[in-house]
Records
---
Amino acid sequence: MKTNDLISLLAQDAPVRLRLGRMLALALAVGILVSAGLLLSTVGMRANMGSAIETIRVIFKLVVTFVLAVAACGLVFRIGRPGASLTISAWLLLPLAALILAVASEMAIVPAEAWRASMMGRHAAFCVFFIPVLALAPLAGFLLALRNGAPESPGLAGAVAGLAAGAIAAATYAWHCPDDSPLFVAAWYTLAITLVTGLGALLGSRLLRW
Amino acid sequence: MKHSAREEQWADWMRGAIGGDTQAYNRFLTAVTPHLRAMARRRCEQLGAPPSEAEDVVQEVLLAVHLKRGTWDPSRPIGPWLSIIVRNKLIDSLRRRGRRVNVPIEDVIETLEAEPSGDGFDRLDAEHLLQRLKDPQRDIVRSISLQGTSISETAARLKMTEGAVRVALHRALKSLAAFYRSEEREDQ
């Protein structure tokens, strides 16, 4: 086949049917729905959420995971586009700083003997198991959509997809989670999100090559 | 790349292409190809690869530009986007052919800006990748590329709808790109 023949061939396939942005938006919407649906249909929302939501630690947990999810999703929408600015990733520092601040104030308020108990909480193992489970649908959706992207580093793109999926899952799980200490969030939420990020990087380096 | 008149023109054509204007897209690809060819030839020369290999690289890069055109944001300049796609695929393609390369992005930008010289001579190892396509995909690709028939003529001959031919063509191009990638694994 001559190059000119290839060009006329490609020209016949000119229109772009599905833009990357729309595919990612679809993946995000479906991911959130599946994740939330899974939570509601299994462990359900925390029974005393109505009163719990008035406490500062619960509000903190909900807000910090939500902000992380928003920042990470913003990054997902850019990582597949060559030349797109990634300065938005600075927003990831916001939830990180908030978490550090919350941990510090928790340690100032709670006596040192109780730190360990606060960190361990009651459902640490379940948290580390269930957040990755809730992350599966958004992760699959993001990876599928990003296959239509052109990430400069497939592994990094996969990691970003994993971070966003893990953050969405954490923000979802926070509506069930009965452990409210920032020490708990810092230890187990972080571990769970890191696991999903690693899984994303691993899958990305295989699936997102182009 | 600065916002040169040429870049504006390319962006215009590509916007048309995304909307389905095949002529605009043909102009875009035809305009970009000499630049790709110059770049590929220079690399092949430096690496001591035969110049005939450059044309294979050009075709593979064109295929990548085609399949990834949905990642270009039409509100942004096309130069930086094109440079990155071309650089990555150039490195990828040459590496697969056993050449360790490092292509600085500045070089790509420079070549896209420069006036290209020389015309291409045509040859392809995509030919043997085409063999791996199944019918009707292979038939469609052959009749449009080699015999220059239109989508509607191809559809009439194969008793398919035009939509089905378009879908088959798009899948065939995706498969070709995947074949290129799988060649790499066989080599390693």
---
Amino acid sequence: MTAALAAALLAAWPGPVQAASQGTPAEPAVGQVSTPQGTKAPAPQGTKPTQGTKPAQPAKPPAPPPKPGSREPGRAGSFEVSAQALWLGAASLGARNATLTPNQSGSGGRYTLFNSSGELAASPGFAATVGYHLTRTLAVEGEFSYARPPVRVTVSGDVENAEGVSFDGENLAQYVVEGSFVAHIRRLSFSRGRGRTFVSAGVGYRREVHDGNLTIDTGQVYHAGGGLKYFFKPRARGFLRAFGIRAEARVLFGVGGFSFDGENTQTFSARGGAIVAF
Amino acid sequence: MTRALSLFLVVSLVLGLPGSARAYQTYGVRVNGRVVVLKWGQQPVRYYVTDRGVSGVRSDQFRAAAERAFSTWQGVEGASAAAQFVGFTSADPFEDDGRVTLGFLSRPDLDRVLGATSFLVDNVTGEIVETDVFLNSSFPWSVASGGESGRFDVESIILHETGHLFGLGHSAIGETELRTGAGRRVIASEAVMFPIAFSAGNINGRELRPDDLAGLRELYPESASAGNMGAISGRVTKNGQAVIGAHVVAFNPQTGALVGNFTVDQQGSFSISGLEPGPHIVRVEPIDDADLDSFFDDPLIPQVDVNFGVTYHDRLVVVPKGGGAESIEIKVTAK
């Protein structure tokens, strides 16, 4: 392995970095002088090299060890980015009957031609989040998510006794942009702080694109939920501080958007994926 | 060039009576071998009202009811139909005097016809030359704001007839039952242009329904909002063969709007326009709630297929804003 490649790996992976920061030299590059580990000080400038053609460079003084906790994810001012697969639960779209005006003045009732109801079937999707820690406990998070659930339609009660039918009417592409507050519960952290539980709540804008991509419904979505993050051993150096995994469950309340009855919708989502701390 | 004129008569029925209504949601006239949609080229339509009333309804009350009916059509968002009252006339409706005349006419021979509309059409240009509307004074009438038991509502029936005047045909969105003896009684309907009127005393026919609105928007689209509506088109087939005379209804589950049309050509094609954008459930049924001649030309009637069951298309049809949804095929099976 060349020194250049080794340096690249050192910058990217946690383990060896700490050793390097404590003064252990990496394997020398071609043409550089190898200094026996820990036995001699680097040769002073101007001293002739004992091997090779280039003068030996003095080793940099070892970097000071990081302050305790300064590389830990979740400190104030740090960022977290996640990419998650999600499972969006089924949601009722309500019901609306096809009705006619009855031949009775002032009756107020309606004559039903047939009944219809809709449901967004459960479907997979994905989500990406960017979070910023205001404090070690509180973070704000922005999210984009996408799912394309089938709209399941049921028609029944036809006045002419037509057989009831149920079919997947279309696929509804849902794009959601949300903002959330995330509160980390320190009392419920585990693995010496690498595992952190949290609760979240937020609101977002939901854009629903019907089949053909020409018809759009929009609305808001509110959510509340909770989950956990687990970070592997934090890296002592480099732009990326830590890698981890994240899992979360949410209850979702939809206001506006596509529905048969104009009422709000409720469902849940479960999600999990990778998280990176900066 | 000799100018030939054709007279069409459109009837509004109480109990179902053969008439000579042309076509479906809108009327078509054959001009030089091609079908031209019947509509007014110049607006407002200038109309007169006969100066004779009937028991319970004076001519000025008739005029006020007619103005309310026209005003209802004029108020349709997304359409630009207009009419203007010119004055009273001593002429009766259905006189070929070049004037649009509305009024009562005694026609005891038409014992199930509440009212009718006639068109005088130029066979060369397809333009409407004259249209008259009469209400049959053989029936009891009322202009009471809340309706009057035992009397038919003038405004409701004029609203239907003036729909014809603007060029709308009959709608089939309604359910009826056969009466003992003869004719039909309407159970419920969702279109002012349904060919069978509500019972005496009922004023539900004063309010236009989505099917009526869609028809007027198709005929007289307002340029500013024409791009806001969409359409569904397709075919109805049975064993691979075209079905003629099928009634296709688009139901918008977000709004509850029902808008219908028919398959009227040899390919079993239909087109429903004037729809609000969004997903629709599409239902097909045979015409069994009114006489076929309420909807179709005489030559088409023998070809109308009523031997199939109510069928739903197995997908939602998403109507785009300002355009047409992808053409669909609805396969029905014999009863």
---
Amino acid sequence: MKIIVCVKQVPDTSGKVAVNPDGTLNRASMQAIVNPDDMNAVEAALKLKDETGCRVIVVTMGPPPAMGMLRELMAMGADEGVLVSAREFGGSDTYATSQILSAAIKKLGIEDDDIIMCGRQAIDGDTAQVGPQIAEKLGLPQITYAADIKKEGETITVKRMLEDGYMTIKVKTPCLLTCIKELNAPRYMSVRGIFDCMDKPLETYTYETLKDDPLIDLATIGLKGSPTNIFKSFTPPAKGAGMMLEGDDRDTCDKLAGLLSAKHII
Amino acid sequence: MATFNNTDLAAYKDVWVYCEQRQGKLMPTDFELISEGRKLADELGVNLCGLLLGDNVEGLAKELGGYGADKVYVCNSPLMKDYTTDAYAKVICDAVNQLKPEVVLFGATNIGRDLAPRCAARLHTGLCADCTHLDVDVPNYVEFLRDVSTLDVDNIQWNMENRNLKMTRPAFGGHLMATIICPRFRPAMATVRPGVLKKAPVDQAKANACEVVMLDVALTDADIQTEVLEVIKASKKLVDLIGAEFVVSVGRGIAKDIEGGIKLARELAEELGGVVGGSRATIDSGWLSADHQVGQTGKTVRPKVYVALGISGAIQHKAGMQDSECIIAVNKNPDAPMFEIADYGIVGDLFKVTPLLIEAIRAAKAAK
Ligand SMILES: Cc1cc2nc3c(=O)[nH]c(=O)nc-3n(C[C@H](O)[C@H](O)[C@H](O)COP(=O)(O)OP(=O)(O)OC[C@H]3O[C@@H](n4cnc5c(N)ncnc54)[C@H](O)[C@@H]3O)c2cc1C
Ligand SMILES: Nc1ncnc2c1ncn2[C@@H]1O[C@H](COP(=O)(O)O)[C@@H](O)[C@H]1O
């Protein structure tokens, strides 16, 4: 049994974000982090590893510096890492990304008791599409928004969150799950883990490695092959700052109530 | 490679809205999508169709007509009583392949975001997630950009004939906006954020005229690989942030007296006739339940008045409330970013300001 976790390195959008004059994101100015939901996916996989002794493989598609992230995840406890990286893969939308990651997962092989895990969504694109699209490309059942995962033999029972409650869903392996932050609290790297991680296998899959898979068709991957294109990107204008109300607290509150009343808001 | 549905784009016509129902009740976002879909269908000069899946759900169809649907396709099966990705994706993809719509919209609910990507991947077409604005006609799009962007729209060469669906959404946590198109494949698909698009007034004549079309459903047990054991509705009533005209939200600023802070917010909300919301910090700390969260990973609200008490104004929070008609910020830090978008700002301690504000509003109302 193995668990393959798809992990993305993303710019930390919670800090200051710089936008280039052409409207693209100045990634160089931002710190790269592991996508938060993906940390929960890794933790869920490591928990199952603690219980069953299975193998955990972390897979990322991105530029070569993402290797550092894979090493960190191996220091947390993942057994192997795969970096999927090629010029041909750059600029892929979620559809194209899911085809490439699916090809990489197929290369690793999917056995009857395997699980694929993703984060629910990545904070740079915020789409939550890649997980379900991988499941479709691999022909696996999916359960998204997993807030609790129990495994008994080849049966997985998942608490799947809805806005107004939850569902409990049963599925057989192999399957794909997407994880949300309510699932767990990710562990830290251990000293031992940091020591060991450099000896663990880390492979790179290039275009050459994957090109024989029918999913890797230049007409359907990369910037040119992606079904969606960016028509325009832009920054919202800074909203003109409104009125700061001056005076002591009672004055400001009276003023505000007066303004709201004059505008018939109250 | 699988067959691509890009051989004859012109064969794809009509705007479809996937109308989600849970336990036989339509979701509020269905009406927003039908109302918006009407506008798009008119711009394209095609029909607007609802797509309704479930077990004996045809009774819900006419209501969708009231918001502008010309037609509602209904797919019934006992196997679709509970939502499963497998059953619903199969029935939707079969219907799309048979009837060939050029646009399909889904609500970006937890279920819409499970279903739409699965369908898009199977149909080999593009999907844009969590859109906040849609256009077909270029002049409308240009006017939209004039309002919401820093682009010099008059000095851009526009191809007025571009009839692709233009799907606009925030990216990078709201730091950037992007308009996405799907020029080579059909249908163009989008999930749309609940609470963002405006619902049209109900038109009873349209509801009566709406055509209900039952579609054949080819579904067997073998198509469904998951088993739904139970569906549990949250026992307590959830706060209706999206429907509220007044929202009073609290942030970490209430830390020194959590109960007191929430109580003040409740009182102010009651005085205004609204509800209480919160920043993610208050949800992560367990002070308010998750249904209260406003922002990128919470709900998007655009009430008449949004009051932010002790909320710093992180971009992820702003992403969920910056389109409110009037924003009032109370914060003891004069440099809090929330003041940059507030219509009215009060620098002060929320524990002192809020009671005075409630009093002042009460007095102003009484004086009317
Ligand atoms: C991927 C991602 C998604 C996120 N999604 C969301 C989201 O959906 N919604 C969301 O809200 N956040 C979200 N966040 C978190 C966001 O970045 C901020 O951390 C959060 O909004 C901060 O909450 P806050 O303003 O309550 O707390 P703080 O930033 O700590 O601000 C507290 C404010 O209270 C003021 N204050 C303190 N005491 C008082 C007092 N007595 N009277 C008046 N003012 C006082 C302080 O001056 C300060 O400005 C997200 C972050 C990430 C990374
Ligand atoms: N480039 C990538 N490499 C590895 N995993 C990815 C990549 N992009 C997306 N994912 C996975 O898909 C999930 C959803 O991403 P998204 O659809 O971009 O919001 C993420 O949480 C990851 O688990």
---
Amino acid sequence: MARTYDAIVIGGGHNGLVSAAYLARAGKKVLVLERRHVLGGAAVTEEVFPGFRFSVCSYVVSLLRPEIIRELDLPRHGLEILPLDGTFTPLPSGDFLWRMNDHARTRREIYRHSPTDAEAYDEYAKAMVDMARFVKPILSMVPPDPFSFDLPGFARLLELGQRFRRLPRLSQHRLLQLMTMSAADMLDQWFETDVLKATMSASGIIGTFLGVRSPGTAYVLLHHYMGEIDGAFRSWGFSRGGTGAISLAIAAAAREAGVEIRTEAPVERIKAKNGRATGVVLAGGEEVEATVVLSSADPNVTFLRLCEPGALGAEFLGEVRRYKFRGSSGKVNLALGALPDFTCRPGPGPHLRGAISISPSVEYMERAYDDAKYGDFSRRPYVDIVIPSLTDPSVAPPGKHVLSCFVQYAPYRLREGTWDEKREAFGDTVIDTIAQYAPNLKKIILHRQVLTPLDLEREWSLTEGNIFQGELSLEQLFFLRPVPGWARYRTPLRNLYLCGSATHPGGGIMGAPGRIAALEVLRDWDRGKVA
Amino acid sequence: MRTDVLVIGGGPNGLTAAALLAKAGLKAVVLERRETVGGAAVTEEFHPGFRASTVAHTAGPFRASLLTELGLDQDGLFLEPEPRLFAPLPDRRHLSLFGDPAKTAAEIRRFSSKDAERWPEFDASLRRIAAALGEVLALTPPDLDRPRARDLLPFFGVGWALRRLGRKDGQNLLRWGPMAVADFVAEWFETDLLRAVIAARGIQGAFAGRGRPEPPRTSCCRPRPRGAAARARPCWSRAGWAPSPRPWPGRHDASARTCARALRSSGSR
């Protein structure tokens, strides 16, 4: 006989686990099913090479919602965030730009490049904080549906309008511009130092198939600016034990609340009867029944692969097929015998403890995109490098290091060849790129792991390798995410909900989609709309 | 010399402003730096006997209400060439688009019957959205800092018109607004040439490539002049996505000249 739960959560990534924890805390009997052998989804730590533990996919944290940390009491379950100390951008000229967490020192450093930019930097930081404060409450909001007469939704929109009116005049203008501009154009309005603009604009392209000069990227930049740890804006950090430790802390909170978690339990099908989801079938044929099913997988996997054909209308499926993934990034993880030595700032030092950004100029960033537009990986890619073992020595053997590179662009669709053929060439390109600034790199590599968009799709079920379960572009945000009319975590199949990054407010280790989805499920339950 | 209003620049906007002010009883003087009025809407004999629309070679979106207001509509100002657009390929194949969606669909069928079937729906959907959006073109943008009710009120009208579009068109408008025109056409059609021809309308005058978001709203959905239906078959503006009435080269400055004529007859100089 099939076993019965109140709720099944498909996928044990951070969002799935957050959903499960909130449902269990409300007294529901919850089962989480994870396909892989390890929990965390893309927020996962794995010992890829003996003694070297990598945050295999997602590698820094800043967007994790403070209310989740508080409500699930994550520090008690082992969550510890260590600060990421600034961003270091080496230049081919032998110079560098080093922005630190210390504002006064950063200002002096920028002054070295341009006195006017140092002035502008203060004002810019203030303006961004203003705007992030305005946008932030949207992150914990259920998107209203502008095309239904949904009164609470209208009330929320109206409130948003009110708060917009209360913003200082200049912030209003800037916010309107920010919604549609390109990151590079927006930064041009503020700064003249090329490398400063290039490094800042990088936040605007992460996870999108857009260039720094593409309209819409300024908003993505703001999205990344909203990170907060302990309430301080714009602070990114590592979690002790890698990003997987975040997932494990959430899992511990979920288990404490009574959630049952199974790994190596791939869901093959979502069962439906009379227009309602009734449970799942696992690979191997085991059936598990539940009153509601939450899927933290992306819409492509959930609706086109797991749902039975015919369970959803053709029009809805058309919209799902239209949803854009277009993975554009890859990951290179290196096990190192020593630290890289940058020509522009030789020797070890605090500059290696933060992010190291290969983004020497705006033109460099845009050229990296040019390659991708026509179906090649960037010959000289944008690389964001971190060496977490400097901050958290537990992840590497004594004296050795792990170095993790986020690389853009690596388009999912290649013009020629396959990713299986090009994986190593891609890895070589990334290493060559970094070696231009740190020539000792090739000699100190002990092992390397190269992840292409195809690998992200195969191993993590991220369609087309998109790290955010769908592009964070304006036409796929808020009440349009993932599909217009279905942005409120519900789906056309009753009792089936989405709770992953493909729902508002999107990707990053934020947990917000998982939390809001669970609260919406509970709301439906209270109103008798479930069962 | 003393006058009520000085207008600097005798291009189509300067002339229109002067004409409307003069009609309202003010004395308006237009000062144009060049020897001929028209600004970028100008026809010049660049070689003996050959007259070209030197800069802008198609006109629009011209407000239909202006045609009537300035008394320009008697002049048969606009011509509608057929086909509206002809796009050749290096391999000798070609595609023509016509004012009549059925005729265009038949032409597209030579490339893809799927695209041919979608064309009328595409055409109709954009027309509906453009008609609703068209209202915006005649409005003064409200002042964000001190919005005045009289500026804002018409926007509720536009909002209502958009809501009346219904769920499907409304959602499409919101989604298409910020999209790259290349992505937008890829959602509709599979024929590369057809995609390119429509997308080309999306990048005119903007410094952004096809792959970058260029709101189809501003590029593809320029609403046609509403009142023009009296004279012309329903079609959008000259610069719209669908090839539509366009003045022949040589006729182009006619609009500027007629405008200037209307101006003089209403007492400006």
